[in-house]
Structures are given as C-alpha cells and as structure tokens.
Amino acid sequence: MELILYKQRFQPLKRQIPAYVYGNVNDIAYRQYEGLPKVKIKDLLPLDLAFDLNFHILSFSPGGGHPFIETHLQEHGIYILSGQGCYYLKDQWVLTKAEDFLWFGPYCPQGAYGIGEQDFTYIYSKDCNRDPDI
Known about the structure:
By secondary structure, the protein is mainly beta. It has strands at 31-33, 36-43, 53-60, 76-82, 84-89, 92-97, 101-104, 110-115, 120-127. The chain has a domain at 44-127: Jelly Rolls. Helix content is 0%, strand content 42%.
C-alpha cells in the first residue's frame, strides 16, 4: 500500500457539503479522455459543485498525449504511478518516470506525452468549481 498525504484548505460553496468518498481505485473503470484513443481517465472524486478539488488518474498509451499545450488558473500536483513520459512545463520538456512528483502553479503551460513501452500513468489533483480570490 502507498499513502500520499494531500492537504488543502476547503473552500465551501454556499451550503453545499461534499459527500464522503471512499473505495478502491481498482474498482473504478477508465473512460476515454476527450475523445483521444490513446488516453484514458478515472475520476476519483465526483464531478460535483460541492467539491473544490478534482483527483484523477490519467493514463497515456505509448505515443498518446495531450492534443495541445494548455494553461489555466488551476494548480496541479502529479505523482507518476507507472511508465515514462515527457512533460512540457513552462518552456522546457522534462523526462519523467514512476515515483516522480511534479507541482506546477497557475498559468504554467503544460502537456504530457507517453513514451517508452508501457502506459504512462499518473494521479493528479486540480482545483475546480471555485472562482479565485481576487
């Protein structure tokens, strides 16, 4: 068993209270991600406005990747579970492998691509469903 401790202050939305979520990640089915044939995703938390955070497992078959470089307000924490990938961060390509951890802040251009001979799979977090404090 591996344990990853993740702390973030919860930002409630009106009177909505998120449900307790528990289970085994192996009981969650993958679904195709954004129509990409070589990329699949597992949603670990409900896609519900009560949650201010998403957790997903994203998996790229060798040669699969994001169709574009993206940037957005949300921060990401990424822990690589298996395989090897090439991750674009800000203005450089970074080679990554199982057990690496990445953290990147708001508006950091990013994209991932599976390389090697097995699926490039990672768990990641992303802020969601809340406007930033101004």
